[in-house]
Backbone:
């Protein structure tokens, strides 16, 4: 069960079906993905757009450096994403 139980049972039927399809295809679905798919218009889409700006927008750091920083932080947080 996820840290936020609503992510296990609070999706509309079409999103639940997509999550199940991904689970069968990949063997798992990350909590990050289920969070982004929960009330997508309220959080998922705006967050994803902001993330793309941070990771791909103008910066003194290269895209590769930003990806490395993100991977390091995820590892420190014990997050497989």
Residues:
């Amino acid at each position: 069960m996820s840290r936020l139980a609503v992510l296990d049972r609070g999706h509309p039927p079409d999103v639940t079906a997509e999550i199940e399809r991904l689970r069968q295809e990949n063997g798992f679905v990350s909590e990050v993905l289920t969070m982004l798919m929960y009330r997508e218009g309220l959080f998922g889409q705006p967050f994803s757009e902001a993330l793309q700006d941070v990771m791909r927008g103008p910066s003194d750091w290269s895209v590769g450096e930003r990806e490395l920083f993100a991977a390091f932080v995820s590892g420190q947080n014990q997050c497989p994403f």
Observations:
- The chain has a mean pLDDT of 89.
- The helical segments are 6-9, 13-26, 31-37, 40-56, 63-76.
- The chain has one domain: 6-76.
- Residues 54 and 66 are 9 Å apart (CA to CA).
